[in-house]
């Protein structure tokens, strides 16, 4: 299975719009949305079926039994995450608790234990030989990197023999991003021609390079700032990064998305441009490392 | 007065709104908590920048003392320790710095050392004090940087502070809004926009924070985000139009309110609305 991960550093650059177009164009049988904080892919690649839902248990959270607690304050003093507070009784703030178990360890009367906690929901759509793996993290949960790993695991297990999997990545450069990056064959970075976009892109390239992953770059909404678009192209050239295309700003794209369609479902400028980027990206993905296809 | 600006997802205009609000507020503090992709400093271009390393405490092992009992390995919930081939190995990137392993090592073979994970910068841009947190690439979590950024600004109760939050609604965002007096949610007029707005909406409700919405990039025609606000009876603070001039200023990292009178007026009126809302909240809740 070749895995193509679509990333952007910053949100809102059109990652999901491009991922959905790629899924349509490649007729991919397997795909996933790793943006478990704010998944959007299901909104346009709806499967028309109910997903199989599984509760996702993150790390267990601490709980204090007030009947056993002798208010020795050991747990509060040793918690590095300020998760234990005292009002009338000793209490654990489950949002701040990092599940490390120190409080349980230091409690002299065994009043504290770690209890299983649901941190999100995994969803698997299977329909006409297609597999779509996605998830939603519960509000304020901190274990998104682990959930991303589960999304990818669920995707691979459901159809291990398919040729191509397309993954809509997680934003940022932190743990969910690192989790989405692990094990993929290539990343396509969607950049935006803004000063902020360039800064984010450089940070993400730095991180991806640490993992030694193949990198391709395309620019979305390139015509909103030609000078910055040129800067990005030059940057790719200087760094020897493969540049696969430029997609124009297109108000038809917004309409397509709001109708739950991909941009290659309708006849529009951005759709045409994304086809070209797709062909180049696929060529690079399936090219052997020695250069022959 | 602490105003947090959040959006559920990146690219909706969080930085645009928070930077311009801070700029029109004049004497104010701007804190960029999006430590994974900080962008505010690109707009403010602060001067007199002072930098401070941010580090976390992680364990280090004295292999002479370690007798291989594996108590630390069994204890660590994050699998940050492993005992392989008669040697204790520490995976620094996944350590959460809880300190548990050090506490329970019977041989006192583990001690703590500081490990840098990023930095915090403070600079000045006109009358705005600009704080930026920057997570080193390859590090998993910037929460300790955010904590540091916010702790530094805890005492200044009367000054106007604008917090540019990280995207999403996970733990890192919650850390950023904990002490905010008011939350400004920025939303895009798309199907994605509504979905993401709904998530931060749930978050601010969970934390019982007063809030209002800024609709960004409004174009003629249907606006699913506006519909959502009307249905849920959510206060719409401002509708910012999609326009090329603003788009261009913003993509060149210019502060629109400092560039033209038109945008100065727009963001001043937004600030007034927000201040009124905060006042209203404090009087009705006291």
UniProtKB/TrEMBL annotation, chain A:
GO MF terms, alphabetically ordered: iron-sulfur cluster binding; metal ion binding
InterPro entries cross-referenced by the UniProt entry: 4Fe4S_Fe-S-bd (IPR017896), 4Fe4S_Fe_S_CS (IPR017900), CobQ/CobB/MinD/ParA_Nub-bd_dom (IPR002586), P-loop_NTPase (IPR027417)
Any Pfam family matching the protein: Fer4
Swiss-Prot/TrEMBL keywords: Iron, Iron-sulfur, Metal-binding
Location of the 4Fe-4S ferredoxin-type domain: 60-87, 88-117
Protein name: MinD superfamily P-loop ATPase
Lineage of the species this protein comes from: Bacteria, Bacillati, Bacillota, Clostridia, Eubacteriales
């Amino acid at each position: 299975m070749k895995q193509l991960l679509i990333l952007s550093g910053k949100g809102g650059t059109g990652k999901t719009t491009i991922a959905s177009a790629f899924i349509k164009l490649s007729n991919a049988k397997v795909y996933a949305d790793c943006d478990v904080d704010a998944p959007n892919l299901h909104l346009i690649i709806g499967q028309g079926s109910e997903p199989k839902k599984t509760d996702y248990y993150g790390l267990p959270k601490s709980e204090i039994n007030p009947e056993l607690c002798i208010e020795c304050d050991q747990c509060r003093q040793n918690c590095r995450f300020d998760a234990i507070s005292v009002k009338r009784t000793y209490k654990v703030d489950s949002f701040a608790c990092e599940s490390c178990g120190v409080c349980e360890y230091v409690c002299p009367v065994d009043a504290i234990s770690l209890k299983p906690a649901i941190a999100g929901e995994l969803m698997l759509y299977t329909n006409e030989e297609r597999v779509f793996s996605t998830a939603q993290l519960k509000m304020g949960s901190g274990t998104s990197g682990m959930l991303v790993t589960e999304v990818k695991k669920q995707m691979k297990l459901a159809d291990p023999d398919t040729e191509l999997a397309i993954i809509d990545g997680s934003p940022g450069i932190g743990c969910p991003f690192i989790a989405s990056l692990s094990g993929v064959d290539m990343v396509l970075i969607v950049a935006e021609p803004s000063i902020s976009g360039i800064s984010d892109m450089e940070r993400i390239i730095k991180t991806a390079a640490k993992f030694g992953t193949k990198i391709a770059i395309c620019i979305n909404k390139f015509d909103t700032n030609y000078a910055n678009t040129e800067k990005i192209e030059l940057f790719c050239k200087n760094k020897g990064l493969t540049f696969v295309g430029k997609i124009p700003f297109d108000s038809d794209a917004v309409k397509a998305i709001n109708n739950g369609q991909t941009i290659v479902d309708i006849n529009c400028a951005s759709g045409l441009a994304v086809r070209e980027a797709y062909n180049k990206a696929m060529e690079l993905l399936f090219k052997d490392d020695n250069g022959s296809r | 007065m602490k105003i947090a600006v959040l959006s559920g997802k990146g690219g909706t205009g969080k930085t645009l709104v928070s930077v311009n609000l801070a700029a029109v507020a004049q004497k104010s503090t701007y804190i960029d908590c999006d430590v994974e992709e900080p962008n505010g400093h690109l707009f403010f271009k602060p001067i007199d920048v002072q930098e401070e390393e941010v580090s976390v405490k992680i364990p280090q092992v004295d292999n002479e003392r370690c007798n291989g009992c594996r108590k630390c390995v069994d204890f660590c919930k994050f699998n940050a320790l492993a005992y392989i081939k008669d040697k204790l190995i520490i995976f620094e990137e996944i350590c959460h710095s809880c300190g548990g392993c050090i506490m329970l090592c019977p041989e006192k073979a583990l001690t703590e050392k500081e490990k840098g994970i990023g930095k915090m910068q403070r600079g000045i841009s006109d009358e705005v004090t600009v704080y930026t947190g920057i997570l080193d690439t390859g590090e998993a979590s910037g929460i300790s940087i955010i904590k540091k950024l916010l702790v530094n600004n805890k005492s200044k109760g009367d000054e106007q502070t604008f917090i540019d939050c990280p995207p999403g609604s996970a733990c890192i965002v919650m850390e950023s809004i904990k002490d905010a007096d008011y939350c400004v949610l920025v939303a895009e007029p798309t199907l994605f926009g509504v979905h993401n707005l709904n998530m931060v909406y749930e978050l601010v409700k969970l934390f019982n924070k007063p809030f209002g919405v800024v609709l960004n990039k409004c174009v003629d025609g249907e606006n699913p985000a506006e519909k959502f606000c009307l249905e849920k009876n959510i206060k719409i603070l401002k509708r910012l139009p999609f326009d090329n001039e603003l788009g261009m200023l913003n993509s060149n990292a210019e502060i629109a309110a400092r560039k033209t009178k038109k945008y100065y007026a727009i963001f001043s009126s937004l600030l007034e609305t927000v201040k009124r809302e905060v006042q209203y909240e404090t009087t009705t809740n006291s």
